[in-house]
Amino acid sequence: MPPQIPHPDPGTPDTRGPMRYLWWLVRCQPWRVLRGSLLGTAWMIGLSARPYLIYRAVDDGLRAGDTRALALWVAAIVVAGMALSYLGIMRHRTMTFIREDAKARSAEVLLRHLSRIGAVLPRRVGAGEVSTIGGSDIDWTAQVLTLTGPGVGAIIAYGVIAVVLWSISPMLALCVLVGVPVVGLVVGPLLRRLERAESVYRRQQGALTARSGDIVAGLRVLAGVGGRDLFARRYAARSQDLRAEGYRVGAVNSWIDAVTVAIPGLFLAAVVWLTARMAVTGDVTIGELVAVYGYVATLIVPVWFLLEGSHQLIRGRVAARRIADLLTVTPDDVGGPGRRWPGAVPETRRPDDPGAPDGPADLHDPVTGLTVRAGQLTGVAADDPAAAVALADRLGRYVVSAVTWGGVPLRAVALDEVRTRILVADHDSYLFAGTLREILGAGADEDDERIGAALRTASAQDVVDALPAGLDTPIDARARTLSGGQRQRIRLARALHSEPEVLILVDPTSAVDAHTEARIAERLREARAGLTTVVIATSPLLLGRADLVAHLGGDRITATGSHADLLDRDPAYRHLVARGSEEAYR
Question: What is the mean pLDDT of the chain?
Fold first, then answer.
């Protein structure tokens, strides 16, 4: 049967605990899991059929000297082997589909959730943690679903073999029934120790991955200030700590692996020794002795699956707990209407809840006192860059705030609608890998005229002309093959191409030369005519094109007016935007 294509909607995961999350993965594909359980059970029980056939071939054929009976039982053994091969192939194939479905589903819900929480993520979870969860943790979680196939079959096969042995000797059956739980009692403490060690190791691994990412991202800066060696030593020290923790995890793993192999072997030896003694005394026949050996040897397979499954369950629980914790990270204003989050109680919008403005409306930030007029180009010059970024986060609803939109609290508007109509474009926002057309957010069949307009406004047409395949040229992640100024203009073109109702630009021209900046300032005003635009910058070329300029001193707007007006009457503003040539404005 061909693999099932995951549904576009992976569903809402149960994040109330690691076991609930694992059970949700099972419930998402019930028929496939049922098929895997049936195939796993049939395969496990089929393994115990061959010792019975061999036992009949020995007693009814060899010992009785009946060639015809021997031939029939040998033929039955061959047919059983072929059937077991088929069942084994189908079992493995089905379980592979189950695991791959679980991986794809976990990856999809994580990607969906991360895209929804957006700017909240870096403040709550490190990049290294997200990386390890999206990589190895998803895989370990999927491995647990093996228990739904061979794991279920192992338990049933254990019971079937015990019943069959009871028909031969109740004492042998009692040894099996008691011996297997004893194996579990021996391994249990090791598994609990492994869970603790795995949790610590995975947490440290995520922290170290985050540190390595930070070092690589700031390597050029570190080299410039002479801090590369310092950070390298710190990273090496943390690596040593992680290695030591890995040794502890490996030690526990090695004991579990050794016990998984040794104890079933010792168990087999003990039962065979006991059966051989019974054969000597005549309590069992030679054929039954062979059968008992086959049954117990077969029993090693389900016992191994149970031990291995327990090992996978411990690792999977640790991984599922980390996934569930990440999925419970929610935006600060999750209480707003129009949003349902995995693991949260769905909220319904009351009839008296205010909606978004029907058309263009003013944005007002009570913290600074800034009012962004609808349909105008507003410039904001901030003394403190951190205050400027905080203002953009409030206006874009990336943090809890009292910002209003047309008199309506912004946090009361459905988040999907806010993201559709209000766009905050940072000057160093991430550029994903893909063709330049895809990076700009354009469809394959989109008219190039609209793309060209955005590129022209951002003065980025020369970037496209320099690429070998133009808009269809593949660009790597972060567009490292482009210069800093080229990347910034591509980011601006991407923001302009989306044509949001409200566009908030944070230092959109900080990496370009003055001539390019002048062209962008002139074209930006033309392209955004009639739309609401906020430019947070200290560039006199950009501020000179604004309808209204606000000077943000500290956390408050200290003066508003045109660029020329503020140059005349606000010395602090004049000093901020003069760029070392304050005398030119006197």
Answer: 78
Q: For residue 408, report the phi and psi dihedrals to the nearest 5 degrees.
A: -100, 130
pTM: predicted TM-score of the whole model, two decimal places: 0.61
Give the model's confidence band at 480: pLDDT under 50 very low, under 70 low, under 90 confident, else very high: confident
Helix (H) or strand (E) holding 577: helix 571-577
- DSSP summary character for residue 398: S
Is the per-residue pLDDT at 314 higher than 70?
yes
How far is it, in rounded angstroms, from Cα 538 to Cα 563? 11
- Residue 311 CA to residue 257 CA, distance in Å, equals 9
Angle at 293 between CA 290 and CA 296, to 5 degrees: 150
Q: Is 364 left (phi over 0), alpha (psi -120 to 50) or beta?
A: beta
Q: For the purposes of burial, counting CB atoms within 10 Å of the CB of 132, is it exposed (0-12), middle (13-18) or buried (19 or more)?
A: buried
Beta-sheet strand order (sheet of 377-382):
422-426, 502-506, 532-536, 377-382, 548-553, 556-561
CA torsion sign, 346 to 144 to 147 to 102? Answer: positive
Gyration radius (Cα) of the chain, Å: 34
Counting Cα atoms < 13 Å in the Cβ hemisphere of 125 gives 26
CA-to-CA distance for 78 and 96, rounded, in angstroms?
A: 27
Q: From CA 25, how far away is CA 324, in angstroms rounded?
A: 12
DSSP string, 23-70: HHHHHTSHHHHHHHHHHHHHHHHHHHHHHHHHHHIIIIIITTT-HHHH
pLDDT at position 204, please? 62
**Res. 72: pLDDT tops 80:** yes
Beta bridge mates, 551: 381, 559
Lowest average pLDDT, out of 159-163, 395-399, 501-505, goes to 159-163
Gap between the Cα atoms of 275 and 281, Å rounded: 10
| Strand bridging mode 404-405 / 363-365 | antiparallel
CA-CA distance, 296 to 168, in Å (whole number)? 13
> Is a pLDDT exceeding 50 seen at residue 569?
yes
